[in-house]
Write a structure and sequence with these properties.
Rossmann fold; alpha/beta; 169 residues; 10 strands; two-stranded antiparallel sheet; single chain; 5 helices
């Protein structure tokens, strides 16, 4: 099924700036969301899912993916938001993006999570989110993305590789 879903990812040349090939997952989300969630759930074994209490999603598309997976699997959902979007008390982290800087925030808590985002490019956002999860008291049991742009990164977090449905080398 993975190869079937890849056909619904559009390549946009020179976006958001010249020389960049943007992988647009909008058609995949719009027309094949149930299949996408089912395939993502299969990237972890049943015994791995049993260890997890929550799925944490990075704003914005990571929200949709993590919340749908949480519902599909009967788990809780934790939002990781852009700065200033959550009520206090939150922890915050600033980080570098491919195209600038940003900040993420989340509430304090505890438990085992799988950290979810849509696309892994250089790893800046996922690394910041992972650090934030650890700072706020959560234990990361896995990292999950729809797409891994392997030609831009060799990302792992504390020895844990990102599991992705689709990869581009």
């Amino acid at each position: 099924m993975k190869s079937d879903l890849k056909q619904y990812v559009n390549e946009i040349q020179d976006y958001p700036k010249p020389g960049i090939v943007f992988r647009d997952i909008s058609p995949l989300l719009r027309d094949h969301f149930p299949e996408l969630i089912e395939e993502l759930a299969l990237l972890f074994k049943e015994d791995e899912w049993k260890e997890v209490e929550y799925l944490a999603g990075v704003e914005a598309r990571g929200f949709a993916i993590a919340s749908a997976l949480a519902m599909h699997l009967g788990k809780g959902f934790i939002p990781i938001r852009k700065k200033g979007k959550l009520p206090p008390e939150v922890a915050s982290i600033e980080y570098d993006l491919e195209y600038g800087q940003d900040a993420l925030e989340m509430h304090y808590g505890g438990g085992n999570i799988i950290l979810v985002d849509d696309v892994l490019a250089t790893g800046g956002t996922l690394e910041a989110a992972a650090k934030l999860c650890k700072t706020t008291g959560f234990t990361i049991k896995g990292l999950l993305c729809i797409i891994d742009l392997k030609y831009l990164n060799s990302f792992s977090w504390e020895g844990e590789s990102v599991r992705s449905l689709l990869s581009y080398t």
